[in-house]
Specification:
- Keywords: Membrane, Metal-binding, Transmembrane, Transmembrane helix, Zinc, Zinc-finger.
- This is RING-type domain-containing protein.
- One of its GO terms (molecular function) is ubiquitin protein ligase activity.
- Pfam families: zf-RING_2.
- By secondary structure, this protein is an all-alpha fold.
- The protein folds into three domains: about 30 residues; about 210 residues, no CATH class; about 70 residues, 2-Layer Sandwich (Herpes Virus-1), CATH 3.30.40.
- Helices cover about 70% and strands about 0% of the residues.
- It is built from eleven helices and three strands.
- A hairpin with a 5-residue loop joins β2 and β3.
- The longest helix has about 35 residues.
- The structure holds zinc ion (2 copies).
Length: about 325
């Protein structure tokens, strides 16, 4: 029988277009499913951050040790080192999240009464407890003969990576930038700042994993490329970049209201409840301050007054 009998078979050639279509449809269906799973993974922010932190910390440790052989024992030591570092840094993360809580509560007069000396003492005790937990683990590891003595460069690199990938900092830094009210950001700090932080992690991940891909390839390195580069680039594209384009487009689609329109509106801005001398008009014919509209777009794409979806009837903008 000839080896190329398949291509000579007329019956098969008749079926080929259908088979090809089926394979392509199945392929795109599978890709869609994988995309959904990856997006779900990204949504579990603490796990998403933890996995990339551990991968990055392990690679940095191996890189700084300059060990020629990627043996198992060395790998285990690096993993323990990475986990311990994450543990220590998470105490700092916990500390910052509690401070954020306190500031957040103080912003609302209503809850001010809740912030008592008792709360402060509980809070301090909790932070101390977290530190004690971390120290006890380090002491236990020392008992096992594993010394936690990170070099200065390791600490700097891993801590910077931790700052740029941990949920609490990714959420808090945009707020700090917002306070500076830099014009260039067009009130989109909540997208620009996390995108820049994510970009830094991708850059750092790319540099470290490229080195290992070229010098000492292993399955772990391949897995790291997936988590440190591919998934993070996906996060930037789908969860920040696309949203950035949509928010900018939507905002541009709001016409600036004329003096007559503001006069005939004869009402206050429904967001900040103050009078308007300048305003923008939404497609549902409601007037708001520009900055108030931008602020609302951050939380949802619905009109703050009548809850019309801004993407409805705006067929040119696609999410
Ligand atoms: Zn307003
Ligand atoms: Zn409306």
């Amino acid at each position: 029988m000839s080896t190329s009998f398949l291509f000579q078979d007329e019956e098969f050639l008749g079926w080929w277009p259908f088979l090809r279509e089926f394979i392509l449809a199945l392929g795109s269906e599978i890709m869609e499913e994988i995309h959904c799973v990856e997006q779900f993974f990204i949504k579990i922010k603490s796990l998403y951050a933890f996995v990339s932190q551990v991968c990055f910390f392990v690679l940095v440790d191996l890189l700084l040790e300059e060990n020629e052989n990627f043996d198992n024992e060395k790998g285990d030591k690096s993993v323990v080192m990475a986990l311990t570092s994450v543990l220590f840094y998470s105490v700092f993360g916990y500390f910052v999240s509690r401070i954020k809580d306190v500031f957040h509560r103080q912003r609302f007069q209503l809850f001010r009464s809740f912030l008592t000396i008792e709360h402060l003492v509980t809070w301090i005790f909790k932070v101390i407890l977290e530190w004690v937990k971390a120290i006890v683990i380090v002491l236990c590891l020392r008992e096992q003969g594993l010394n936690y003595q990170p070099s200065l460069l390791y600490s700097i690199l891993t801590f910077l990576y931790y700052l740029c990938s941990e949920k609490i900092f990714v959420e808090t830094l945009p707020d700090l930038f917002e306070m500076l009210s830099i014009e260039k950001f067009e009130n989109l700090e909540h997208l620009y700042v996390p995108m820049a932080m994510n970009f830094f992690t991708v850059l750092a991940g790319t540099v470290v994993s490229t080195y290992f891909l070229l010098v000492q390839y292993s399955n772990f390195v391949l897995l790291s490329v997936y988590f440190l580069v591919y998934i993070r680039l996906k996060d930037i594209y789908y969860n920040y970049w696309k949203l950035l384009i949509v928010e900018r487009e939507i905002f541009r689609s709001f016409r600036i209201a004329t003096k007559e329109e503001i006069d005939s509106w004869n009402d206050i801005c429904a967001v900040c409840l103050t009078a308007m001398s300048r305003a923008r008009i939404t497609p549902c014919n409601h007037l708001f301050h520009s900055h108030c509209l931008k602020r609302c777009l951050k939380s949802s794409l619905l009109c703050p007054l009548c809850k019309t979806h801004f993407l409805d009837g705006n067929s040119e903008i696609k999410l």
